[in-house]
Amino acid sequence: MEKDTDKRKAADDAAIDWVMRCNDGPLSKRERAAFRAWLLADEANQDAFDKISSVVGRLRSMNFETSPETRGKPPAVWLSAAAVALTAATLAFGDLATMLRSGYYTWPGETKLITLADGSRVHLDSRSAIAVDYRAAERRLVLLEGQAWFEVAADAARPFVVAAGQGTTTALGTAFDVSLDHGRTSVTVGEHRVAVVSGGRTVVVGEGEQSSYDDGAAAAAPRKVDLLRATSWRNGSLIFENATLGEVVEAFGRYHRGHVIFADPNLRSRRVTGVFDADDPVESLEEIEAALGLRMTVLTKYLIILYR
Fold first, then answer.
1. Domain span at residue 259?
2. For the domain that residue 295 is a member of, what is the CATH number?
3. Is the same domain home to 148 and 189?
4. Are the C-beta atoms of residues 176 and 189 closer than 8 Å to each other?
5. C-alpha distances in angstroms, 27 versus 2, 33, 46, 50, 281?
6. Lowest mean pLDDT among 25-34, 77-86, 243-252
7. Of 225, 257, 277, at which residue does a domain stop?
8. What are the FecR protein domain coordinates in residue numbering (predicted)?
9. Surface-to-core class of residue 223, CB atoms within 10 Å of its CB (0-12 exposed, 13-18 middle, 19+ buried)
10. By CB atoms within 10 Å of each CB, which of 26, 70, 211, 245 scores lowest?
């Protein structure tokens, strides 16, 4: 299975290179010979080249309206980005190494409820992974990617500890949420308290509060948060208030097996407020498209273009 995935990825990587080289201008005699040899070497190479060529061809046929800074410039930059995005989508989980290190993981669009050996429960968000290391003196879990909600079974003799980033969260008889996002860990408490340790500082976070820390930095002082919004993913919803479109699309990326590309990067700064269905991110994007007066084209199930 892993060998097949590696083979497809290698074929897609090479296909992207050949498509871009062909679009740059006529190939030399030596390049044409190398290209033909590559196509004939494996049927997967021809399939990959056809797939990437189709995406680039459809992008070229579209009349995008871009920002004044990009209008009139050749589309090579974001055409290349589109092809790269499609290649990245061939690995649905994103990081195979993380998946192999984990004890439990979820695919894009999937959530999972896990009951551990001691009766504690973990609700794992989409595109997330945890490792479990239960020992006689400690129950330790590691959040490797994504987000999870923990409901801890009482056991005073064995602390329940969740490591994430470069810090830890120790339950003090509680239910809590931990999320990892670009090197920042956020801990939100639903019941009772937790002790968050990072950067040489320990803070106690109470019910309805949140603390966060960057890798290597001290944990922030607890602050009150909207618990419903912070944990809305558990009910299949994503709630945003005055978030940028870039932030919203990134959040949807956890639930969508593919990529969204902005034809105009300035669109990322548009503001979005609303409640959206995490189970259908494409439909949610269509709602945002209508609300913001944008246009959206679904080229493949793995690739969506947003533009004006």
1. 236-307
2. 3.55.50.30
3. yes
4. yes
5. 34, 9, 18, 18, 41
6. 77-86
7. 225
8. 105-192
9. exposed
10. 26
The region, left, alpha or beta by phi > 0 then psi within -120 to 50, assigned to residue 233 is: alpha
Compute φ and ψ for 304, nearest 5 degrees. -125, 135
Instruction: List, for residues 66-121, the tens digit of each pLDDT value.
Output: 444 444 444 454 555 555 454 444 444 455 667 778 899 998 888 999 999 999 99
Specify the 3-state DSSP secondary structure of 301: coil
Dist CA 271 CA 284 (whole Å):
15
Q: What are the structure tokens assigned to 276, written together?
A: 């959206």
Beta strands in 109-236 (DSSP E): 112-115, 121-124, 129-134, 139-145, 147-151, 160-164, 167-181, 184-198, 201-206, 209-214, 223-224
Domain boundary among 50, 65, 88: 88
Better pLDDT: 228 or 60: 228
Residue 290 above 70 pLDDT?
A: yes
Residue reference for tokens 């994430």: 164
Query: What is the total count of domains within the chain?
Result: 3
Is 231 domain-assigned? no
C-beta atoms surrounding 48 within 10 Å? 27
Reading the block at residue 227, the tokens are 């618990």
Q: What pLDDT digit, counting tens, does each position of 187-213 carry?
A: 999 999 999 999 999 999 999 999 999
Q: How far apart are CA 290 and CA 295, in angstroms?
A: 8
